[in-house]
Structure formats: structure tokens, C-alpha cells
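To: structure desk
From: M.T.
Subject: fold request, one chain
Message: Could you run this one when you get a chance? Sequence is below, nothing fancy, just the single chain.
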Amino acid sequence: MTQAIELRIPNERLFHGVARLVVGGLAARHNLSYEALEDIQLALVTVLEGDGYAAADEIRVELRVSDGAITMAIGPLHGDAVRAALERSTGDDLGLGRLLGTLVEDAEVEAREQGDWLRLAKRVRGIKPAGANA
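Reply: Done. C-alpha cells follow.
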């Protein structure tokens, strides 16, 4: 069974730290390595603080943990801007696509009723099953 957490925050830099804390708490609860935690948090902050990616005054972050992976969806976003940033990373340019490519195994823009979202997936070993005691 997959557990899901949804966080809604104002699209203001002041609240991005709250999202990082939630991701950190989830990672600690499921026994993720520090490396995996840092990768997920950096991916989240990169998107939240990216140039004009957010399409609303409120940002939602959805987190799902399943056997072997943690998936994060961030939205609503300006899908065209995110797609362009994902594709623009070439050569020595440390663009969004290249950065996310080193942090997560999968990054794709998906259309939803509320607008475009960026779905990120990080495969990790050693995730404790839901409900397991630390």
C-alpha cells in the first residue's frame, strides 16, 4: 500500500523551508539515507525557487512512498516553462534537466485538472514498510 502526503503552502520563499522539513520528516520515517534525503530536498527547492515555474499563489507538494521509491509531484506549474527548462540543459549548462537528472531517476511534466505538475521519482533502497517502527 502506498502512503500519500499532500502539503499546500503559499508560493513564497519563506514557506519553502516548511516543504523541506516535511520531506525530511518523511525521509526519516522511512529510513532513507542522507544522500537520498538531500537529493529529494534539493530537487524540491530547485523547482520551488525556479524562475517563474509556479502557476498559482498556492503550491501543492504531493509525496508518495512505495516499495523502493519516493515520488513527489509539485504543482500547479507553468508546464511550458518547466518543459523548456528540462530540455534546455546541454553541454556545460547546469540547467533544470541536468540537475534533476543527477538527483532523481525520473522527471516529467504531467497534465492534471488543476494544471501542469512536475512528477519526480527517486528510487531508494531500504525504505521501511508503512507502519514499521523505527
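Reply (cont.): Residues 2 and 66 are 5 Å apart (CA to CA). Let me know if you need anything else for the meeting.
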